[in-house]
Amino acid sequence: MNQALLNSLTEAERLLVAEAERDAVKSLDEDELLELHQRIRRARTKYVKNYRRAAGAAVAEAGGRGQSYPRNQRDRDKAELFETVLARVSREVAGAARQAATELRKERIAAARPAEREGRPTPAAHDSGPDGVRRRATKTTGGLKRDASSRAAGARRQAARDAR
């Protein structure tokens, strides 16, 4: 980062940027990351707003946008710095959220497994014959043919409607 820009930051802003360094961010949990993300976003929004207001006011004084552009460099640089820091923290928040979602999913699956098996017979006991070997049904009820016939009839009705 530009040293002149870092020297122009206030102490609070310098601490905020330091909190968002890679090593410091790795030790934070999801809630702390979200709180840091919010504070950085507030700082970024502040400097974007300051830049836009000053740039809009300077256009009339300078006589054009191109001539007023260099006058507001500090706020523009601060907004860009906080945007970069915000992007870094956003990536960390996304990683922490993804990890938390994975852990919650594993917990829900683990909690559901014992309840899933309670009260239901095991598949081997349900489908097995007298010798304990699983048997498959050899007859069908014609459901597949009936379903296909019904779909075809529906397609014919739709085609007749479309032809009108």
From TrEMBL:
Basic and acidic residues bias spans: 103-120
Region (Disordered) residue ranges read: 57-76, 103-164
Query: This protein is called what?
Result: Uncharacterized protein
